[in-house]
Structure prediction request, 721 residues.
Amino acid sequence: MPVLIKNRALQEDDWHVLAADVEEIPARGSVLVPLARWQILREAVPEGGRRIGVVLDTGDDPHVLAPDLHQLPVVAVHFPSFTDGRGYSIARLLRERHGYAGELRAVGDVLRDQLFLLARCGFDAFALRADQDPAAALAAFTDFSEAYQAAVDRGALFERRFRTEVVQ
Amino acid sequence: MYLYDEIDQRLVDERVRQFRDQTQRFLSGSLSEDDFRPLRLQNGLYIQRHAPMLRVAIPYGMLATRQLRMLAHIARRFDRGSAHFSTRQNVQFNWPKLEDVPDILAHLASVQMHAIQTSGNCVRNVTTDHFAGVAPDEVVNPLVWAELLRQWSTFHPEFAYLPRKFKIAIVGADNDRAATLVHDIGIQAVRDASGDVGFRIAVGGGLGRTPIVGHVIREFLPWPHLLTYLDAILRVYNRFGRRDNKYKARIKILVKDRTPQGFRDEVEAEWAHLRDGPGTVPAAEIARIESRFPQPAYQVLPAIDAAHERTLTADRAYARWVSRNVHAHRVPGYVAVTLSLKQHGVAPGDASADQMDAVASLADEFGFGELRVSHEQNLVLPDVELRTLPTLWERARAHGLATPNAGLLTNIISCPGGDFCALANAVSIPVATAIQARFDDLDYLHDIGELDLNISGCMNSCGHHHVGHIGILGVDKGGDEWYQVSIGGRQGADAALGKVIGPSFARVQVPDVIEQLIQTYLARRDSEAERFVDVVHRIGVEPFKEAVYAGTH
Ligand code: SF4
Prediction:
């Protein structure tokens, strides 16, 4: 079974990513479906405790998913290339604007050297590109011990700076 | 110079460690060239025609003398003894070895410098007025805000992989010495009627193949909202900027496609959600940053100095230098001085390690151990006592730093061009030196008066040729190097883009073409006060065109 990084640890990944709109949904197991497929399916699920999640493309509008977020255990964002940065904005919109609290997973061209920033934007699960070493990649979460900007993982550094100054 | 605190220092140190690891993985083959490229670019490292090129940030153009000495040291130890100051308040080393770059970055970090985001499709090093903080016409000192922007843009979690590079410039004076209107975002610090600081925000300006002047989308943004508003602009761009065609990927194309009005509405809608959020800047943060800029200990001095006045009348060369290279200061008895890196016969912006050390000594002796880098590729001593000016002049002359050509024709802005840059269509530095050689007569040069001549080796426009009063662009014609000439560009509050005068020229023709343009100007100007660019705007391009092409057909 493929390996997933979840909450900065390795675990087995039992989700099947549906490749295209034409692919049949497997009889059992957890499935991630493209947004278009979800929009057809959403009325019919969940049957028999099936877990269904959605894979967004970087060009998709995350706002259309807002009404469904509370019932989605996993939302994935597919990176066609690691240099396509739209997924970072999508993640922040899902977390910060729509309060999505389930698993937010980066899939596709996901590499070790982007993990730190992806995590800052709210991703907590990473299905790395096949040639990557997930165990070695865990070190990337501590590439930096601080960050200036407010994002999903923490507030702005200026807030923390004043807090420590008061304590001292 | 903003002084790092422990956290600022830790972050640049961690960046060095991260890049060292990435470089090792690349050299050992576990990180592919494609995966490594964006990472090295975000650390300023290009692979160029001859060797790697490393671009180091000089945030908002401010340098302490210990930093300049470190640049000289790096030039000697890791390069061939010189460095090139670019048009974007960066400094470039043209001959480092890839495996040495982590060590170079560690040397830089030891003096609070870095190469973070000096290239790549991310928010680049923020630039400002090279007289920031000392200019008498300044409404707001932009340095504190520029440092705030440096911190905000450094490793921004959401905007590391934008459609294209993203350049921000900020000024605090009416006179837009940072050319903000030709940046992706141009910020002008202003005060409202009650004296509160805010910002005028323009977007979508830029040079390159589709040059355009930026559109103001907000006249007054109260200062606490600066970062959330920029987040909103960048988010709209990150999500909707084109990624299918690198020539249409800059924000100016998105602004044009949506119309400036439509783009503004989208930004405002996004900002409605971010406004007053956790990115809102507290007053205490501004005070904190301000307190980390050492305050120069200005003395109370008379505004007029007798020795200076005497030398002015006695020495024509001194007077000429003062008229071009010495600038007014907000504190009486002080001036700002341009040290020219445009010595005739040397590539514009190039400085040897010895010159850098010499400048550092001058800045320690004639100032507060701090200097500025201008987008005109010169160095500026910001706080010189007027009474020491004649001595400084002698000393600068001895080091070849007193060419009195600031603002004149031979103060050429030039990109590195085909000698160094893999993207070039043509060389630019030899063209610059050929023009400097042609206009070597100082009296003639001063008679011609203010003239910006800018050269780019290709459409990427690193030499800002569109906003030169005369702009020269290297073009490729069947594999040969040709040069297209435009006139009438200018920067500043009334920024305009130059118009191409006609078919391009061979390299040897260029000095003659410039000579023809100048002759036409001298014949048509109504007084010495009317500058070349003013004449172009008054009488149009035609008379110049006729003069230049008269002999060719
Ligand atoms: S303008 Fe072109 S040739 Fe000149 S430095 Fe930029 S990319 Fe290179």
